[in-house]
Each structure stands twice: as C-alpha cells, then as structure tokens.
Amino acid sequence: MKEIMTNIVEVTVFRDGARIIRMGRTELGLGEQIVKVTGITRYAEQDSFRVKGKGNAILRGIDVKQVSRSYEPEGNIKELYDKLKELEKERAVIEDRLQLQRTREERMNVVLNQFSSEFGKWFSVGETPMDQMTRMEKTGSELLRESRKTIRQLETELEKIDTEIAALHDNINRFQGQRRTETVNEVFVSLYAKESTQLELEITYQLRMASWHPTYDIDIGDETSSIKRICVVRNQTLENWENIALIVSTASAQPVEAVRPNPFYVDVYSPRDYRRISSRSSAAPAERMKKEMDYDDVAEGLMMMEPEEEPMPEIMEDYAHASETLGGITVYSVPGEVSIPADNDPHPITLTLEEFESRRLHFWNASAMAEVVAQDEITNGNAVLLPGNVKVYAAGDFIGETYLDLKAPHEKFRLGTRIAYDVKAEKKLVEKDTEKAGITRGKQKRGYKYSLEIHNFGKQEIAIKVVDVIPHSNSEKITVELTEPSLQIQKEELGVIEWETKIRESAEFNITYSYEVEWERGVVIRPPLP
Fold first, then answer.
1. Do residue 42 and residue 81 come from a single domain?
2. What is the pTM of this model?
C-alpha cells in the first residue's frame, strides 16, 4: 500500500453544495498496487467519490472508509495533577490554622468581656486590687494583636495558594483542550501497473457544507444600466481552498421531482355547524426600497489644472466567463486562482458586469401622492437573475437597497424608486357645480372639474404615467358620468384612470377632466362626496 498526498485544485460551488477535485502524483512499480488517499473531510458524501487519472495502469476499483484519529497533547499532565494535590493539602492545613486562630480570638474576647463584667463585684468587696484590671487588659490586648496578625498572614498565604491552584486549573483545561478527535475519509484505489510508471490521480467528490448566494450592484444610467453579479461563497467543509480554480454554478444539489396530478373531486357541501370561521390573509410580498437619497448633477466647466505628474491607470477588473448548460443552468468560470478558507465567513467574488437596456419612467398618483417619483425599467439579458439583495446606484452614487426576485431572461423589472425633484405636480379643483344640487327629475346631481398640472424643470424629455381616482358606484341608485378629458385615457377600471404622456424639457403639461355624480333623492352616499 502506498500513501500519496493530494491537493485541491478545482472547486465547483453549487447553490447548496460543492464538487471538489483533488490531484496527486506518485510512482508505481509493476503489478497490483493499492494507493491510499487520506485527509479528506468527513462531510464528503461516500457515494460521490470518482477516480480517474493518467499513467500506464488499469483501475480495478475504489473503496472509501471513514476513520477517526485522536491527537494527544504534548507534555505530561500527571505532573500538573501532582502539583495540584500538594497545593490542595497545603491549603487545607492553612484553613485549619486560620480556623484555630479565629476561634482563639473569639474565646479571648469572651474571657475579657466576662472579666470586665465581674471585676466590679470583686473590687467592691476587696478581693482584688485595681492593678489586676490593668494587667488583664494589657495581656488580653497583646494576645488579640498577636492572633489578628497571625490571621492576616494566613489569609495572605491562602490567597497565594488559591492563585497557584487557579493557574494549575487553567493549564490542565488548556492541556485537555488540545486533545482532539478528527474524523476523515480515506480512499483506497486498487490499480494494476503494467510497468513502472508515473501515476497522476484525480479524485472527485461532492459535499453539502458549502454554498453561495447572489448579490447585485446595479448602476442606473439614462439609457443603459450596468449590473454587477457578485456571488457570496461560504466554505464550511473543514478543508481550506488554497490557490484553486473556482467555478460557480447556478445548479442545486437538491433533488427535483415531477409531481403527478391527482383528480380534483367536487361534491355538494352539507354544513354541520354555523360557527363563524375567521381567516387571515397575508399581504403579498413586494420589493421594497429603503429611503433613497437625492443627488446633484455633476457641475460642468470645472477649472482646468495642469497635472503635476502623469495619472496612474485605473485598475482593470477581470470577470468570469459565463456559459449555459442543460436546463438553463449558468456556469461561471472565475479567472485566476482563488483562496477561500474554511471559516464559515462570507467571501464575495465578482462574476460578471453586464450592460442592460433601461428607460426612466415617472409616476404620479394625483389622489394620494404630493410628489412625482422616478423609476428605471430594466430589461434583463439572456441569463436568469437569481433572487438576492441589490445595492442601487445612480451614476455611481448610492441611492438605496432592495431585494430582487427571480427574473427570467428578457424580463422587465423596475428599480430605483426615488422622488423626482425636477418634476412638480399639483391637482387643482377648478369647479364644483353646486347649482345642480337641486331637485332634477326627482334626483340630485353634483359636478366636479379638476386640472392636473405637471411641470418638467429638467433638461430632458420625460415619460410619465398619471393616475387619478373618481367615485365608482356599486349601487343602481347612484350614477357617475365622466366627460372626455383633455388627454386620451390609457386605461380606466373601477374609477381608476390612467394617462401616459411625454413632457418636453422645461415645459408644463395640463390634464383637465370632469365628472358628474347623480343619485336619487333620499339616498345618503357613503363615504360623502368631496
């Protein structure tokens, strides 16, 4: 049996897994040989190992085994335990002496207190002289002083021993922490060498403890927008990927199933009880933008200054080569060599930078918005955009973050919702016809006329969608009639009116429309009309 060392040379990262390729070289003699490859992470799936290579040999088969190895720390832990026992014995002796001194001090205080309380009786009957009291107090004070001094010394010694014991415990815990058990996979490759030959083995296996998720930087322009695809790789395989060829695939290691349909039976419902069942509906998820910032146009005509030295060239960024495989799966080959340690930290890697068609749109809801907002409609390219977080820029300036859902090739989507400070809009009530509020054919009628004024202060023509709302009747007793507005209506549904138009630079545009509401006498309209 011959053991060879292998290195990871290529990693293909899937969205929830990875495929690893290891390579190693050795020399084989004539005859049957078994080559052992060790050091492969325990997370490798044992049924995923594949072996191929180069050399004048015949591959007989492979066998995969999982083994555990224990690593003992260097040094002798017995010495630490012996030292700990000695210190604990010394500590017990000091505690006994300390307890003895404290008991002695308590008894001395009891004797002195009792002598002081009884001395007056003895002195009054002449059984003891006064100097006896003085000698007793002097002797008692000396004994108490000596006892307290001894207690302080013993407490100091006890503190030192406790410090040494704590240090020993730390060393023992550190020593025991160095003892570890590692589980690895070992691959045994059976070969028949036709002659003495150089052998180059390539071992491929898959695992689940690696993944990546996409994130995007989108820079919005006037007619085109650039999208930078970034993959964030996590390596939890216990194997460091050093100087490898990295391939990022949009494929998933999860199994996919084609679900067969089941018959859909319907029958007559017979209610058994009339309890009221309440249901809750969840709001549909929507792409949301954080608060965006406005940015000023770059001023032109800056003062020209002669450079003192030749400017340094900008750093060139190399992007991955993308190719499409079966089922629309995209594979990105990252240029150069990449190193990703097994630390479970996110490691961002730039994949591609693409230019997509885009156009700027403006939107104003006259019934609910005081300001016009701008959005950019981007047309996706030939590849799928996977769900991920997006940082949105406009001419290089950061304006906000959002989340991008799955976008199919050539699908249109909108990003960069922000206030359009160069467009001003106002809704004005031109006329409210109260003259017709009287009785007409037994009915009441009220008319309204509005003007929607939009002013483009920008230097470019804009496309804008304007939306407004008029009353919509759900009753036959109330009718609403809309007269032809000044601009042709693009869409009207349930009282929601939409117009689309273009406004030239530094120009003003007005939309006027009117409607009448007629209802039978005695009918109360809810909510009340404006």
1. no
2. 0.62
